[in-house]
Specification:
With about 300 residues, this protein is α/β, with parallel strands linked by helices. It contains 13 helices and eleven strands. Strands 1, 2, 3, 4, 5, 6, 7, 8, 9, 10 and 11 form an eleven-stranded mixed sheet that branches. The structure holds pseudouridine-5'-monophosphate and manganese (II) ion. Manganese (II) ion (MN) binds next to loops.
Length: about 300
């Protein structure tokens, strides 16, 4: 491997690594393809601040001009969120985008790969990808899921969106040996909604308990990630009927327009935001901020164990 050729650290993250401080990774697809401008850039900056306020150093990850960048400045985040048409980069796209010196926004899968190579153990996002509805026919299963089975990074999220088949997503994670942990919940959360009807594998209630679980998996040498799922705060959760309606409509439109491959998730996210008149965006922002606080505390606990 010759990572040094392709990976560049911000001064802040480099210093944190030298000083042994807790670092939290953040993805950039959510900035470039998951939220509209300028809410995307504002949220990304606020999320970084919440991570600092909770004692950790944020490392937003993206590919810029053919380099994996670990830790972005405000200008970089604005560039990814507004000034460039950074392409969505999952595992299969990393080498292509680096080789062609393009800009790329990393998904959960790609961010996990970059975080692991940078020695970052905790990664905060909004929601993970999953098995799409009718995935048993279309084979549309997010590359995030097998990545969780092979790359040793803990992903703190608000579960998976109900645009996905959550039952099959849980089955796939089980097959790939990924522990799905509820943070202060017994049920796997469904992103905008606090419950999905599917139980988690176990529940934890504190950052220390979560950190201990991660340590045990590491000490056992069991490779692979873990999902720490925490529900959207009660006050920000969406009405389930309103959400089902928006999901149904957006899925029908995706089918009509023959949306395929990596465009499916960004298309659905965008249509749901339009159909709910921005309500889903508010919930999205609230839940990622909540995840940021939880993830930073877990990283701090992990660092002091
Ligand atoms: N789910 C969200 N918001 C997002 C994504 C998923 O609620 O922004 C993004 C993440 O980057 C995730 C990716 O890794 O979409 C999954 O895309 P796909 O389904 O094409 O694998
Ligand atoms: Mn897909």
């Amino acid at each position: 491997m010759n990572l040094a050729r392709w990976v560049a650290y911000s001064d802040e993250v480099q210093q944190a690594k030298t000083d042994g401080l807790p670092v939290v990774a953040l993805e950039s697809t959510i900035i470039a393809h998951g939220m509209p401008y300028p809410a995307n850039v504002e949220t990304a900056m606020e999320v970084e601040k919440i991570i600092r306020d909770n004692g950790a150093i944020p490392a937003t990850i993206a590919i810029m001009k053919g380099k994996i960048r670990i830790g972005l400045s405000e200008d970089d985040i604005d560039y990814i969120g507004n000034k460039t048409s950074a392409q969505k980069v999952s595992r299969r796209d990393i080498a292509i985008v680096l080789a062609k010196k393009r800009d790329g926004a990393t998904t959960v899968a790609a961010t996990m790969i970059c975080a692991e190579s940078a020695g970052i153990e905790v990664f905060v996002t909004g929601g993970i990808g999953g098995v799409h509805k009718k995935g048993e026919v279309t084979m549309d299963i997010s590359a995030d899921l097998p990545e969780l089975g092979r790359t040793s990074v803990t992903v703190v999220c608000a579960g998976a969106k109900a645009i996905l088949d959550i039952g099959r997503t849980m089955e796939f994670l089980e097959t790939h040996g990924v522990p799905v942990i509820g943070y202060q919940t017994d049920e796997f959360p469904a992103f905008y909604i606090r419950s999905s009807g599917y139980p988690v594998n176990t529940r934890v209630d504190t950052p220390e308990e979560t950190a201990h679980l991660i340590r045990v998996q590491r000490e056992m040498g069991i490779r692979g990630g873990m999902v720490i799922a925490t529900p959207v705060p009660e006050a920000d959760a969406m009405d389930s009927a309103e959400m089902q309606n928006a999901i149904q409509k957006s899925l029908e439109e995706a089918k009509e327009k023959n949306v395929r491959g990596k465009d499916v998730t960004p298309f659905l996210l965008n249509r749901i935001q339009e159909i709910t008149g921005g309500r889903s965006l508010e919930a999205n922002i609230a839940l990622i901020k909540n995840n940021a606080a939880t993830g930073a505390r877990i990283a701090v606990a992990l660092n002091s164990q």
